[in-house]
Amino acid sequence: MDKTYFIETYGCQMNVYDSEFIADLLSMKGYSRAASPEDASVVLINTCSVRARAERKAITRVQQLVALKRSGRPAYIGVIGCMAQRLGSDLEKAGCRVDLILGPDTYLDLPQIIDGLENRDGPFVDIGQDPACLYSLKPRVHDSVTAFVTIMRGCNNFCSFCIVPYVRGRERSKPLGEVVAEVEHMVGLGVKEVTLLGQNVSSYCGDGTDFASLLRRVSDIEGLRRIRFTTSHPRDLTPEVIEAMRELAKVCEHLHLPLQSGSDRILKIMNRGYTYGQYRDTVELARSRVPGLALTTDLMVGFPSEDDADHEATLQAVKDIAFESAFTFKYSARPGTRASELEDDVPDAEKTRRLQEILGIENRMIDACKQSLAGQEVEILVEGASKREEGYLTGRTRKNWLAKLPAKGVRKGEVVVARVTGVSRWMITCDKVLLKGGGLI
């Protein structure tokens, strides 16, 4: 069997990080990346289990690959990640007769496991959880100017709707020195911006170091231009973290702070650990200390027992706080969570109606926010050529808006200041580069 692999990744940025770790692990064992599943001897599907829709999408894709395998290519199919952890050998009941099923804590021996598949009768399954598991990514080659760096794994919050503590285990933090070494390695490969990842980065405690101190230490790394982080739990976002955002020029003015619901009653059933008033106070403190802060969030509609008054409270919260954008989803029960024991009593049609109502408000706010950018000067980290328009490059502003600008005289990896001349819901257009090399806006 030739040593070629293909990885498809579903779900959050932590899955993206894990896929990159696996790719580097395989490359060190002589594997090369294939352009498509048809060109690969090993195909790995890195899955998400946070929502039922994510699982359905992954299962459909695995079924397609199983059918493709009958033609002789790929030789092996593996399902890894959170859905693999949750379902284990039950994947076969969903029509996913694969060769390999691995949970998120079991990747280190993957090359050796693949080598042993030829002599197996039935899939290799390992969904054991390792409370000491902490991967570090130090690739030999990295072709992007941005990178994810996972600083912790697992979660201790046990929100009643969330499967993460069950499939990714309890919270554990990487040692401070290991995080710093990983970021320094990435910067040495040309990375200009890192996003620090964790299910709840605000509770980071590697070597007894809190998250605010970690931000300050990473900010000292020479050659690094920008720092982002996600996700922060509202209950644990401290004034010290907010102050670090204010003081550190490298930390971008963007905060993703999941609200989930504007109803205190629903927040309590969700076991979120805060009231809407406490959330709003945290937002007001952050906006008062970090000028121009862009705030994004997660919202859930149709949680068990959510009534019209609860929904109206969420609508009002969206209007009052004026998020720059929000990821909004319909509730779906996750087996094994406490919420799955509650009656899913909001009809799907009503969930859809409530979702569309929130999206209508969100979209109007996004449009207004984008329109306000017209004529302004923004700082952009240039990430590479536009995939849609020849002669343009794309990048992101400090507030995480996607931007495009003319390619003439500008290179990937540069930080530039440009004037905004056009806006759409998901993209801003700049016509002229005013300054190259820096100048924080």
Written overview of the protein:
It contains twelve helices and 19 strands. Helix 11 links the parallel strand 13 and strand 14. Helix 7 runs parallel beside helix 8 and helix 11 runs parallel beside helix 12. The model has no long low-confidence stretch (mean pLDDT 94).
Helix-strand makeup class: alpha/beta
Strand adjacency order, main sheet? 2-1-3-4-5-6
Query: What's the Cα radius of gyration?
Result: 22 Å
In CATH, the homologous superfamily of the domain at 4-126 goes by the name Methylthiotransferase, N-terminal domain
**CATH architecture assignment of the domain at 4-126:** 3-Layer(aba) Sandwich
Quickly name the level 1 CATH class of the domain at 4-126: Alpha Beta
CATH topology of the domain at 4-126: Rossmann fold
Instruction: List how many beta strands DSSP finds.
Output: 19
Report a brief summary of the structure.
The protein is an alpha/beta fold and 441 residues long. The N and C termini lie far apart (53 Å). The strands form 5 sheets. It has a 6-stranded parallel sheet, with helices on both faces.
